[in-house]
Design goal:
The complex is a heterodimer of chains A (212) and B (491).
Chain A (H helix, E strand, L loop, with lengths): L2 H12 L27 H14 L3 E6 L3 H8 L6 E2 L17 E2 L6 H5 L3 E4 L3 E3 L4 E4 L16 E8 L3 E2 L2 H7 L6 E4 L4 E5 L2 E4 L6 E8 L1
Parallel strand pairs in A: 1-12, 2-3, 2-4, 4-7, 5-8, 7-12
Antiparallel strand pairs in A: 5-6, 6-9, 10-11
Chain B lengths: L10 H8 L3 H23 L4 H17 L1 H14 L3 E5 L2 H15 L3 E4 L3 H6 L1 H7 L3 E4 L2 H8 L16 H15 L11 H18 L2 E4 L3 E3 L4 E6 L3 H7 L3 E7 L3 E2 L5 H12 L7 E6 L9 E7 L3 H5 L15 H5 L1 H6 L10 H12 L4 H5 L9 H5 L6 H14 L1 E5 L2 E5 L6 H15 L1 H13 L13 H5 L11 H8 L2 H4 L1
Parallel strand pairs in B: 1-10, 2-3, 2-4, 4-7, 5-8, 7-10
Antiparallel strand pairs in B: 5-6, 6-9, 11-12
Helix pairs in contact in B: 2-12, 3-12, 9-10, 16-19
The chains are: A alpha/beta (212), B alpha/beta (491).
Chain lengths: 212, 491
């Protein structure tokens, strides 16, 4: 008998008390919890996102389409090299010095470690928790590019990409894609259960709320 | 501490020494009280917390009742997404599978995300015996590993260490494992975190094999979920070429939608955050992004034995948030090491004796490591009635009974050390069944009350060493009632 058979047989013996007629969908799960905690206008939802992002030490910028290239250029001005995913809106980087911008797909980890900033879009943002989610789409790139550089600039199109809650975010996301949920910069509570920002992930997270 | 739980003394002996450690108690008190208050606030933000909690418990119960179905569905989904699924009946088999998979890559070093399952199986030691070095990358696990220590908390394994101790460990030990601590390192938490960042950076960038656990596995999609804070999880899950995840079979949930419950319950209950900084979700492998090879090792190691107990099975709902540790008066005073397993605190007191059985003195003592105050049940985000299971397990230790061990049904003998308690309980049962005997005994006790010692003689002395004996009233309630019919004050 393989270990697979051993474990499954043990499970079945352990469940001898479960009536034969009971199917895997039983017993039903009460889903009377809320789909969102409160009803909000678009402005209120975006404001809550900003508030919760800031509470966990992300830096939030508000910006209109016409000015986004100037803002992003200013945000990455401290970095010698800037990484962008292949499908990033070219307008966003239109004012930046092109010699500093790279989007090589095959960058090594060491190479990425030398990069100062990365600019990405996102898949969805959650107002109630101050979370942005990346799903590896062409404007977000591979997971490693938003992980190794120490400075991440993430552009959220508001209000379209902003949802209220975790349940609403999961409805929009595709589980077959690799997903990264980000709520503020890297942090730890491992020393006396006190939160300290800045461990392995980007220590500086800047979120641009781009009005359409 | 020497990096193993084997041969540890029973809970009372271990706790007797740890409760004398003033620094440990101060560290624990500070940390648990800090998180306790924050958690209460984070939970209070959600009006529907009680409904989320009920739904979380219901999803887990439903999954457990049909675990074979969901495991087979999970296996199929993971395989369809490009992953390879392995099954391990016990710890030794899981460790052997992982060691073989690492050897097949030709690598001798692995980076690890904090994982309760691999703590439980003692994977690092097994890998070391196979000539493979495992680097722990969670900050607290790093502190534990560098200090040749044992974890003492589910969420914060180094909770028993304060900042000064952590600085000393980093200064003395980091150099032996890689990049030494920076010169002049202080005990400021920010500086300590920076030292860990620098120390581990080179490990991440060069790692070819990553080892993780998972908080959740979704049967319908084959998606695995790791919830973390520091980014070490993201590093280990995305940079290596090969990823091996060792996950307990009870971590499966049926649907993608079910995550909406647990991703609200877990962070608020665990770190008291609306959302933890990073959550990674992956489904098999993705071309050009992340590991090219993904192995999932499904671990039993006593879980099916726990499942066989219809009262104790609820312990398998646990999502490892550690809220029960943070509110437990016994944990706060005894510390995590006294529990002698990877799972300390109230959840450990019901999980360990079920996963390992109660054959050892330590494991038989764990159901007693509680005052049954019920605070653990109150805070549990999946409503595990820990006091109920504790009482159930105590009964089993004292009276013996039917249990399942390694998949085989056996009858457990009553534990030896509990003979006196059993005799006392039998005597009490007789007295309560015979009111005349009880009445006579109470009268005798009332009339001789001046002669009663402050401590019990004979085998009872151990019990009364740490307790005050209740004074016996001059007249029993029964006699008082018989005499007055309650009219004395009732008029």
């Amino acid at each position: 008998m393989s270990s697979r058979d051993v474990v499954l047989a043990r499970v079945r013996r352990a469940l001898a008390d479960v009536p034969r007629g009971e199917g895997p969908e039983d017993p039903p799960v009460p889903r009377d919890y809320l789909r969102a905690h409160g009803s909000r206008t678009d402005e209120e939802r975006v404001a809550l996102l900003a508030e919760n992002l800031e509470e966990y030490r992300a830096v939030v910028h508000h910006c209109a389409e016409d000015d986004v290239h100037m803002l992003i250029t200013r945000l990455v001005s401290g970095s010698q090299t800037v990484l962008v995913p292949p499908g990033l809106d070219p307008w966003w980087m239109a004012a930046a010095d092109p010699t500093r911008i790279h989007d090589r797909a095959a960058s090594t980890t060491r190479g990425l470690d030398a990069v100062g900033s990365v600019v990405t879009g996102c898949a969805v943002a959650i107002a109630e928790t101050g979370t942005i989610v990346l799903d590896g789409s062409p404007d977000q790139g591979r997971r490693r590019i938003s992980l190794i550089p120490d400075h991440h600039v993430c552009v959220v199109r508001v209000p379209d990409q902003v949802v209220d809650s975790v349940p609403q975010a999961l409805e929009r996301l595709d589980p077959t894609r690799p997903l990264t949920w980000i709520s503020g910069p890297s942090a730890t509570s491992d020393i006396e259960l006190d939160r300290v920002e800045g461990v392995h992930g980007p220590r500086k997270l800047e979120v641009v709320l781009l009005s359409e | 501490m020497s990096g193993t739980y084997l041969g540890m003394p029973a809970f009372p002996a271990a706790a007797a020494s740890s409760t004398q450690d003033a620094r440990l108690r101060a560290n624990l008190r500070y940390a648990t009280h800090t998180i306790r208050d924050k958690r209460a606030k984070a939970v209070a933000e959600l009006d529907d917390w009680a409904r989320l909690r009920a739904a979380g418990a219901a999803v887990k119960d439903r999954t457990l009742r049909h675990l074979d179905h969901y495991l087979e569905q999970l296996e199929e989904s993971v395989a369809a997404a490009g992953g390879q699924v392995h099954w391990a009946a016990d710890a030794a088999e899981a460790n052997a599978i992982v060691a073989r998979l690492v050897r097949e890559t030709g690598e001798r070093e692995v980076v690890k995300v904090k994982s309760m399952a691999t703590q439980e199986t003692g994977l690092n030691r097994a890998l070391a015996e196979a000539g493979i070095t495992a680097y722990e990358t969670d900050l607290a696990e790093l502190i534990v590993q560098l200090g040749d220590d044992l974890p003492s908390h589910i969420l914060v394994p180094a909770i028993h260490r304060n900042r000064g101790e952590i600085r000393d460990i980093f200064r003395e030990r980091m150099g032996r494992w890689g990049r030494p601590a920076p010169e002049g390192l202080s005990d400021a938490p920010g500086e300590l975190a920076e030292a860990a960042r620098l120390h581990l950076r080179e490990k991440f960038l060069d790692a070819k094999v990553g080892i993780s656990g998972a908080n959740f596995m979704v049967a319908e999609t084959g998606t695995l979920v790791v919830v973390e804070s520091e980014g070490n999880g993201r590093m280990c899950l995305t940079l290596p070429e090969t990823l091996i995840s060792v996950v307990g079979i009870e971590k499966v949930v049926p649907t993608w939608q079910d995550l909406e419950i647990f991703l609200q319950l877990l962070p608020r209950s665990s770190t008291a955050e609306r959302m933890n900084p990073y959550t990674s979700m992956w489904t098999g492998t993705t071309d050009g992004d992340g590991p090219r090879t993904f192995h999932l090792v499904l671990l039993d190691n006593g879980r099916t034995d726990t499942l066989a107990d219809t009262v104790g099975r609820q312990a398998l709902r646990c999502i490892r948030c550690s809220a029960c540790l943070n509110v437990c008066p016994v944990y706060e005073r005894a510390g995590g090491h006294a529990y002698g397993s990877a799972y300390p605190g109230p959840i450990g007191a019901i999980l360990t004796p079920q996963l390992r059985g109660t054959a050892s003195e330590l494991d038989a003592s764990l159901p007693y490591a509680s005052s049954l105050c019920g605070a653990c049940y109150e805070v549990c985000p999946v409503a595990i009635d820990i006091p109920e299971v504790l009482v159930h397990l105590r009964e089993r230790v004292v009276q013996g009974g039917k249990v399942t061990r390694r998949g085989v049904k056996t009858v457990l003998k009553p534990a030896k050390g509990h003979a006196a308690e059993r005799a006392a309980m039998r005597a009490a049962g007789f007295a309560f069944d015979h009111p005349g005997v009880l009445r006579a005994g109470q009268r005798l006790a009332g009339r001789t009350r001046r002669l009663h010692p402050r401590r019990l003689p004979g085998p009872g002395h151990a019990w009364s060493d740490t307790r005050d004996l209740p004074p016996v009233p001059a007249e029993s309630f029964r006699d008082w009632w018989r005499r007055t019919r309650g009219e004395e004050r009732g008029k």
